[in-house]
Amino acid sequence: KIIDTPQFQRLRRIKQLSATDYVFPGASHNRFEHSIGTCYIAGELLTLLQQQQPHLDITDQDRICVQIAALCHDLGHGPFSHLFEDVIRETRPDRNWTHEEASIKLFDYLTDQNNLKPMLSQYKLDDTDIIFIKELIAGPLPEFNGKIVSNRRTGIDVDKFDYFVRDCRQSGVLHSFEYKRFMKFYRVLQLDNGTRELCIRDKEVRSCYDLYRTRAEIHQAVQHPVVRVRDCVWHGTAS
Question: What family is reported (predicted)?
Fold first, then answer.
């Protein structure tokens, strides 16, 4: 129901990597497919945690909330994604504007305009759950499930799991990071301060190195001189 709304369908027309396809022609994929992929991986991770650590008491409602947040986390992106974000920051009085802020507003708008609350209630989601979904989109929460979609503490989350595979494949960047194996070794542990965190086995430390190296290589492709020149032309036109 969410995917079929006009507000979500517009993501088909928003490029994931701005002007990167001017250098890497295959990199013309969009936010629509990335959002669906992120939603899928979020569901897979929550299902794994439900099976491996039943004492966490992760409910089906918890899983659905995280999946909806993953599905809608990029709703606020404008044309050419992060390039649009840069332009908005320069032209608005509020220099701290983010696409996450717009995603939350669009999620509210999408829900109201398409009368989706009755549908959400069928899955036993109430107003508290809707607030939780928006908090997940806004940024990491203290609890482990609040860092599945957006983890600013470590930079490791399902958003990156999807775009690493997708962006590398589309732009021809080689990578060795395997998110499916990585997720199998995820466990939620309680820290000394009482909070519960997503943790990874020590033997998977090389996978962490692969993850960060993959992110660096994708950024290098996106920051290609020709891509930057193309961005500057559009940026000047938009300004």
Answer: Belongs to the SAMHD1 family.
pLDDT tens-digit profile of 33-52? 999 999 999 999 999 999 99
Contacts of 192 (CB under 8 A, 6+ apart): none
Q: What kind of architecture, by CATH, is found in domain 2-238?
A: Orthogonal Bundle (1.10)
- The domain locations on the chain are 2-238
- Condensed to tens digits (0 to 9), the pLDDT of residues 10-19 reads 999 998 888 8
Question: Does residue 234 surpass a pLDDT of 60?
Answer: no
Q: What's the pTM?
A: 0.90
- Residue 15: strand, helix, or coil: strand
Percent of the chain as helix, strand, coil, to the nearest 5: 65, 5, 30
Report, as residue numbers or ranges, the catalytic residues.
Answer: 99
Long-range contacts of 112-116 (CB under 8 A, 24+ apart): 113/5, 113/7, 114/1, 114/5, 114/7, 116/1, 116/2, 116/5
Per-residue pLDDT at 233: 63
In this predicted model, which residue has the larger pLDDT, 86 or 166? Answer: 166
